């Protein structure tokens, strides 16, 4: 466990170098939260009953969706690190460490995510709460379940990203695939538009895919749209995907390690 | 300590497709090109040895080092280091070894050296006592304290290499693999790196396997040298043996009073002439320098002379060429 903390500390040292970058990110999150707030309030002023939840819940959903971008952006996953290390040949310094590669990538990424959560998500949520109508969780229970669900959502995203990283080991280039993958995740995770607003077949598809673990489930729990046994079922859904994807990821790594090509030197 | 038997590594590279969705098409394609990078290498290294591992570019040095460090999985053959199979027991194994890849760094680019070392301390679960003892050693021998608070991207190459050596030794490994540790480093910094490697090997009894293209590294550090080419071992033995086998020729450089035409002496051929200076190449088993000098001095007055020993580099070139 200590290693997770060590990587978080290192991420902090690393990110502290680029302060300008940090402020820029915070400002861009703020702008996105502002636009989402504005879009939903004006839509609700036209059709107050068309979206299944009240306006306060929907604004909270939208703002959280933007605030969580800092930790749920698939573009910051381990696959990017793996692809870079493969390209530069730096992957051999990673493999020369006494760490399980899968867990090493998790620790490295989670350390960063922990740092980004503290420095980007929390401040954005505070700004959202103070100025843009982000509400508190629906209940203390919802708050607790939200925290668990957020962690599970992160693990699902990590596991999916790791699998994409495994693809990078085979193809040595995942730029074109990454682009499609990122759009897929954004769309089916319900970051922008809640999944319950999707039309029939799309909604059904989104419900079985793992992506809704990422934004849709935690946020729906937070605003009280998912509660009671439905919330617990959703957590089980997330857990099953976490386990399944971690197993697949491990098998994939065992498979590609034997055919690993280290470039350069 | 290190046992390698009939080690083979073949690379199967997918033949890349061009154009739209090239990534996916490369993935689905069945075209592979096979390259045998390491082709049946065997050797043993005893504890405390300092072995030079050389060969021309693309000979398979780095690939063998990567298999020895557990990074790459061998296609066939056996590696056993300290009773462990590197790629199978990678986690346990990498705790006992240190690795430096001269062309890459394991340090975080943007943060001060000391932060990377502290992360490594946690990764290898090094105790505080051991860590501070090692840091002291690095300060003494590598002057690490001079730049440990500087971000890696601002270090000179020589400093970066010293920092990387320190990083490889944070956990006091018993075996050190150095892949071109002196590459691109200036003469003074090279000397310092060599002294450090020598010191670590002598004082701490660390077994060292080092690859390099600089034969002076080998001359200064190693008693044993292994040469590979085209993935096969073409020489494994002492540095002196190489001298005896391939270094029979000497060059006698003679400075005459005035410019004279080129001429040959018995058992010696004239290589070149330049402003009254002649170079004679001779086989030291066929003739001696004194015989040669005696013969030459009867023909023209000599001002100055010197006997040049062949450089290891020339011998190695002869070996690469002759294989």
Protein described:
The complex is a heterodimer of chains A (265) and B (323). Chain A is an all-alpha fold. Chain A has one domain. Chain A contains twelve helices and no strands. Chain A has helices at residues 2-16, 19-46, 55-67, 69-72, 78-88, 91-95, 101-131, 140-171, 175-188, 200-208, 216-223, 228-257. In chain A, helix 3 runs antiparallel to helix 11 (216-223). The radius of gyration of chain A is 19 Å and the shape is globular. The two termini of chain A are 34 Å apart. With 323 residues, chain B is an alpha/beta fold. Chain B folds into two domains: 2-6 and 38-244, P-loop containing nucleotide triphosphate hydrolases (Rossmann fold, 3-Layer(aba) Sandwich), CATH 3.40.50; 248-322, 2-Layer Sandwich (Alpha-Beta Plaits), CATH 3.30.70. Chain B has helices at 22-28, 61-68, 90-94, 113-123, 128-142, 157-169, 187-203, 215-221, 239-246, 289-299, 312-322; strands at 2-14, 32-45, 50-54, 76-81, 97-101, 175-179, 207-211, 224-229, 232-238, 249-256, 268-274, 277-283, 302-308. Chain B has a six-stranded mixed β-sheet with strand order 5-6-7-3-8-9, sandwiched between helices. A four-stranded antiparallel β-sheet of chain B has the order 11-12-10-13, covered by helices on one side. In chain B, strands 2-1-4 form a three-stranded antiparallel β-sheet, covered by helices on one side. In chain B, strand 6 (175-179), helix 7 (187-203) and strand 7 (207-211) form a beta-alpha-beta unit. Chain B starts with a strand and ends with a helix. The relative contact order of chain B is 0.13. Classes of the chains: A mainly alpha (265), B alpha/beta (323). At the A-B interface, helix 1, helix 6, helix 8 and helix 9 of A face strand 1, helix 1, helix 3, strand 5 and helix 4 of B.
